């Protein structure tokens, strides 16, 4: 049964439910009204029969007729008149001997009928009402004694209402109630259908099971999003916050019902409501943390009924862009190394074609010796594979630019702690080595050296070059995003390398020292093996 109900439409359920409730209420009310009418009609008939019998018995003309012994036609006329006025089915008057003086059937007049139900009125002079079938079918009768002035019983007056006629009257009234009930049921059915159709329209034609499924899917979808999602109604009050939004602001208590402007201040929400257009990539700072916010209106019948705000941590986006930039640079370094070896292979091929075998052996020996020295310094002293990969790539890039890239033979580095990720290493070492290589490219004896030390609580990297050095005041500005000492082309974006290095060092709680003179620059980077809570410093010393 329940399985079948699941496949019944909402419109049918609502219409059927309302119709059932209306029918049930109508049946209850109709039963109550019918019962009340039956009780009232019978009660009225009992009262009316007694009152009419008493009135007839007290009439002077009735008394005089019985005292004189004249049962004239005037008594029959009188009782017929009372019957019409009180809608009585019959009024029967008997004298003290039981002779019938008035009766609806003229043939019965003059007959002597022994007192049965009227016995107490004849003997004791009592007034009473009862149900009787003594005269005409089963009837409700009122019985009253006709008394003389001296108090003697002259006769008995019996006024009756036949029950069959009473039930006919009741049926007529119940028929009216039933017709009224049918009209109410029809009206209820129409209203139920209209209500169900309206609800279906408001729910966009979805059934409750479909809405429940969509609600669960929405909750799962919102919970799976890494972006924060906050929805507000047409009044700008928050009605939905997903888990990611709460995690983005652990220090801020979010709650449903608050104005969205208090949770995400500084945005022009009214513009979204007025123009019915979204606002994308709005930068917002909350607790000194940058976010990218998109606002999209919720439209229903071309009316704005709310808005949805999506939030992304700008720091994560920036870090991802930096990482992609460094991966690309790393790829370029490997491509440069491949290009360098390709040039050497072409040189060797040319010498072989010319038959200069001794020169070929000399070039090969030089290359093997150089590679052995580089590989020995990298693989024997540097155990961290990520740093090894970076250094191999930078060696090829330096070689292509005719820069002597030297790795200090006294360097030593164990595998780095897990909190120092490759993306951070690529940003720090990649930018510093690239800057050093570019600085000395124009020098005839261009030289860049790298050293690593893994002692104590810090990991130390040192990058030195024999360039022209940094002038006073350039160090502080070098860490600003967009600042560069090199010339920019229209398509080139420079000045973000050291700014990215600074961000990565802040993330790792590291520090950096810069020593610069006209003979070159040495940059020393300190990375703690255990994070220390955001300690970052940059020192500049002129040599």
From TrEMBL:
Enzyme class: transferase
Signal peptide: none
Coiled coil regions, renumbered to chain: none
Transmembrane segments: 177-196
Protein name: histidine kinase
Localization (cell): Cell membrane
Alphabetic keyword roster: ATP-binding, Cell membrane, Kinase, Membrane, Nucleotide-binding, Phosphoprotein, Transferase, Transmembrane, Transmembrane helix, Two-component regulatory system
Topological type in the membrane: Multi-pass membrane protein
Every Histidine kinase domain range: 336-531
Keyword set includes Lyase: no
InterPro entries, per the entry: HATPase_C_sf, HATPase_dom, His_kinase_dom, PAS, PAS-like_dom_sf, sCache_3, Sensor-like_sf, Sig_transdc_His_kin-like_C
EC number: 2.7.13.3
Catalytic activity: ATP + protein L-histidine = ADP + protein N-phospho-L-histidine
Any single Pfam family the record assigns to this protein: SPOB_a
